[in-house]
Amino acid sequence: MLxxxxxxxxxxxxxxxxxxxxxKQRLTTVxxxxxxxxxxxxxxxFPFLVYDTDDWEKGLRCVACKICEVECPPQCISITKxxxxxxxxxxIYSGKxxxxxxxxxxxxxxxxxxxxxxxxxxxxxxxxxNAFELSTDDRFGGLMWDKQRLAxxxxxxxxxxxxxxxxxxxxxxxxxxxxEAKPAAAAAAAPAKPAPEKAGAATER
Amino acid sequence: xxxxxxxxxxVTIKHWLVLQSPAVIQPAVxxxxxxxxxxxxxxxxxAVTTVLERKGLGRMQNRYGPNRVGPYGFLQPLADGIKAxxxxxxxxxxxxxxxxxxxxxxxxxxxxxxxxxxxxxxNMVVADMDSALVFFFAAGAAMExxxxxxxxxxxxxxxxxxxxxxxxxxxxxxAPLILSxxxxxxxxxxxxxxTIVERQAGYWGVWxxxxxxxxxxxxxxxxxxxxxxxxxxxxxxxxxxxxxxxIIAGYFTEYSGxxxxxxxxGEYLGxxxxxxxxxxxxxxxxxxxxxxxxxxPSWIWFFAKLMTLIAGFIWIRGTLPRLRxxxxxxxxxxxxxxxxxxxxxxxxxxxxxxxxxxxxxxCAIPIVLLYWLLGRALMGGRKLEKRTYRFAE
Lengths: 205, 393
What we know:
The structure holds two protein chains of two kinds. Chain A is of the alpha+beta class.
């Protein structure tokens, strides 16, 4: 009969109304600043630069190879390669000095969080962060992040993305073992010859 | 203090204050003291209603609603008001400045005019007119003019569309609104709201037997009146004039800041006024719903009934989706109008039959029959089935 559907609808909303006072499960709202959802492990917002040890400047993994700058679809990364090389402070490059980014800027107002920079980086040097409360009152300077703003310790990466960080650490350790085994093997096989010049080729572009 | 004194406390205070003032200005003071409380109480009620509505609607959608400003979010209207006041008031370049400026004022003024004839308690009515109902509907019709002024004066196609929809809708639903109240006028034999309330006084045991809502024609008339009232006050599901998803905000698209707030105020004031009229016509006005509750002052009962009807409005808003324009018009002319006509017919039978259970049944038959027939005819042989969604489930 006419009007039955309306009454059914009214009953449904009344049930919601009273149910929301008696059953907590109905209220799915998370009262954000006070309560927070645990972010899923794959959550990603903007990239950061990984550094090892405790010094962000010396321990930065980035070697300014510029692959990410080239690959970045919206071109939000801008890198200036250094003229000199810095010593391998954290020891992940088997003690070989490396180039480093004199300037490494990401314009996060342009960044589209696609993670391509992370995927192309051969040095595990750039990763995605999950911090999202990043509003600022400075439209231009505040959204142009320099390398100090971008630098985060590896422990931070391990904390926010444990699975990925473990993989990344394993890959780095394997690479390091390989890099150290190669000159050692070469030295063992031909002790007369000097250590191959290109031993570090895997790490240099 | 006796219950009588508490009931009449505002009337007594007013008389005392009027007598204190010099004789020359006594009429002016009397008018002022009648009008001023209404100008304060109903906007405050508006503020309370907005926050209650938002919280209620939230609960119906299983969320909290506003709960940040003040205890449980009850200071939210204050924050909204301050926000509306300090916002920039933008008038479009192409707008008809005068009409654009006057429209919200006229809306609020006509809404306030309607309160003049609504008895909010025993002996508490601003203007006890013999033709109060006519005055009420005339003021309500002026509301349409202000809405069309807003739409026309904005020089914006969305405003214009909204205003055209509003006028079409309000004129269509004014017919069933007035016709359903005509039944009451027929039985009460008066257009005066105070007389209509008096005719509904008295109890049968504890039961308020004479309330018109407890008669078959009154019950049907009340439902029809409330449906028409929903459409008159542009409330969901009849909120086509301001359908956000289609025409932004309808006739008040081009209003900002405090004028926008005035439109909201006017809309809610119209809703309160028409609910107040429904209380007066069908629910016994300020009378207590049970005979042993008469010790509670009459004005409390009036506002309790008013808020109950407002809660109904909110409940409906939380339940029903917006109608389409053709559905709106079909509903008004094909369903509401025949129903109100048969309600008038039924009230006529009621007037001339001796009271008793037979009268009740005889009066109920035409209404139920037409309802059933209309329900079948308007469906047009279509069958409503549970809709299945191929991809969503």
